[in-house]
Design goal:
By secondary structure, the protein is an alpha/beta fold. It is 23% helix and 28% strand. It is built from 7 helices and 14 strands. The strands form 2 sheets. Strands 6-5-4-3-2-1-14 form a 7-stranded mixed sheet. Strands 7-8-9-10-11-12-13 form a 7-stranded mixed sheet. Helix 6 packs parallel to helix 7. The longest helix has 13 residues. The relative contact order is 0.16. The structure holds zinc ion. Zinc ion (ZN) binds next to helix 2.
């Protein structure tokens, strides 16, 4: 079995118990990190993963709560004397700005820097992001404030599918993204432009035929997120879980 470890579960406003939403997929060949709102290396180390083993990072979109940990993570890796390559995947909108962000830190002047490459994902449904021995991962454009991708992650060893909505308001493409998924991890930041409520997440899970729903990217500041579970249950009959930091789910 592969597993997903939730490294952060909050929407853009985090608190001491909930980091910004990001997670790591752990298979047999190596981890895949999805988003980097803060430097994840301490958490990755606690999972028993060598930092050099982390070589694949998908960035879903260029908002601070999803990418602002990149410079600190890269500096951290460099100071550890890393040699292993690192590969970033994302839309051109995000990759271009990530490169510009690193240029602002003049990273080209950091001596003996390890190799970093960027793969641009096309902004269209079902575009292949990454295909390794464990996972086949495709990208699906969502409806957010900037170009953003959700992900469909197939465990190639078991056939199990994990779908991730990323930041989005409800759109038909999400039903394809999450079609018959075993786990649907859906944002629940709240109803409005570019985001979804837990109730809307439940509607997408129902329409997609997802077998289980996990709520993430929810509000935590001066609010109790636990009622979101009942809200999602109003529109979805399957099991609903509120993701918490460091939760692990097998798939
Ligand atoms: Zn976000």
């Amino acid at each position: 079995m592969a597993r997903i470890v939730i490294l952060g579960s909050s929407a853009a406003v985090s608190d001491a118990k909930h980091d910004n939403t990001h997670f790591v997929l752990i298979g047999e060949t190596g981890p895949v990190l999805v988003d980097c709102g803060s430097n994840p290396l301490g958490k990755i180390k606690n999972l028993g993963i060598d930092d050099e083993a982390l070589q694949d990072i998908i960035l879903t979109h260029f908002h601070p709560d999803h990418v602002s940990g990149v410079p600190n993570m890269l500096m951290h890796m460099w100071l550890l004397g890393r040699h292993a390559p690192l590969r970033f995947y994302g839309l051109n909108h995000c990759i271009k700005r990530t490169e510009d962000m690193m240029s602002a830190f003049a990273w080209e002047t950091w001596p003996n820097f390890f190799p970093v490459t960027f793969k641009r994902v096309r902004e269209r449904d079902n575009d292949l992001v990454l295909d390794n021995a464990d996972f086949r991962i495709t990208a699906w454009p969502t409806k957010h404030f900037v170009p953003t991708i959700g992900l469909r992650i197939e465990n190639k060893r078991t056939g199990t599918v994990l779908a991730y909505s990323c930041d989005t308001e409800p759109i038909p493409g999400l039903i394809d993204l999450a079609h018959d998924a075993d786990l649907l991890i859906h944002e629940a930041a709240g109803k409005g432009f570019g985001h979804s409520s837990a109730r809307q997440a439940g509607e997408i899970a129902t329409e997609a035929g997802a077998k289980s729903l996990y709520l993430i990217h929810y509000q935590v500041w001066n609010t109790d997120p636990r009622p979101l579970i009942d809200e999602a249950r109003e529109t979805y009959d399957g099991p609903v879980t509120l993701c918490e930091d460091f939760d692990e789910y097998e798939f």
